[in-house]
Amino acid sequence: xxxxxxxxxxxxxxxxxxxxxxxxxxxxxxxxxxxxxxxxxxxxxxxxxxxxxxxxxxxxxxxxxxxxxxxxxxxxxxxxxxxxxxxxxxxxxxxxxxxxxxxxxxxxxxxxxxxxxxxxxxxxxxxxxxxxxxxxxxxxxxxxxxxxxxxxxxxxxxxxxxxxxxxxxxxxxxxxxxxxxxxxxxxxxxxxxxxxxxxxxxxxxxxxxxxxxxxxxxxxxxxxxxxxxxxxxxxxxxxxxxxxxxxxxxxxxxxxxxxxxxxxxxxxxxxxxxxxxxxxxxxxxxxxxxxxxxxxxxxxxxxxxxxxxxxxxxxxxxxxxxxxxxxxxxxx
Length: 332
Ligand code: AQP
Known about the structure:
Bound molecules: adenosine-5'-tetraphosphate
Largest sheet: 3 strands, parallel
Distance between the termini: 30 Å
């Protein structure tokens, strides 16, 4: 590990298959940032975070592995980046307990994700869901990360991490770095069925999953909600459906939206969608193939994870000792 480079960290919850929003808002960028060589990158499976919604313990190991497989198949290289599992590094939980004492209750209550998820599952409004942003702050502050590549939905949480860092530093002396978010050009991909709602695992009907077969990809894209009119034009307000599809096309083909608009100047929605399906398939098929191949060597995967856990724990342990000293919790 080159410790002189600025630290970058981000996580993905182990709650099921990843979708195009996760890919374009986060994963694709993880790989680009790793390959830029500018950062020491840490990518983790946020399995503690995934416990705040109803879950089946029998499914968890598979879901954790699923995220690691997606990281590796997308191009994260464990020789360059640290790939680890959050729950294997106990300092995430320790720092959460400490930071809880500085986290304003009212601010947590007002978090958009907490409000949305509480409304969506009123029978399971638990403290884990409420405390999610503090655990996320711990995830980031523990590694002295300067940048955190995330989708737009995580900006409010990251702002809390910055607030907590500032508060703690003001009271106990410079301890934490205030992390900055890094957004992609598609920080908020919308659902295929409803372009006014974020593409989200908890609403599978609107998701394009990274594991979808070519047939399903074609069907989903051809069925995707578009707008009245015929023009292929980016107009978020009046044509949210087509604008969302244009963003997917652009991000996966590396063509600017303007170029795509020109390509389809005198063409209809059906042709545009047919081509978009091909673009998606061209990116996802090699990804799926790599994932399948990686799955065949479970032992290698376990070795990668164990090595990543160890590297992360060394960094996290050093930091938690520093933090405990600052707040007077070390007597020997
Ligand atoms: N629709 C999206 N557009 C852009 N980025 C997105 N992300 C999630 N949805 C979109 C980003 O993906 C990263 C990993 O997300 P996560 O695993 O933390 O899960 P999430 O944000 O909870 O994903 P979902 O699908 O939205 O799950 P539910 O339904 O449980 O809320 C993050 O950087 C996130 O910003």
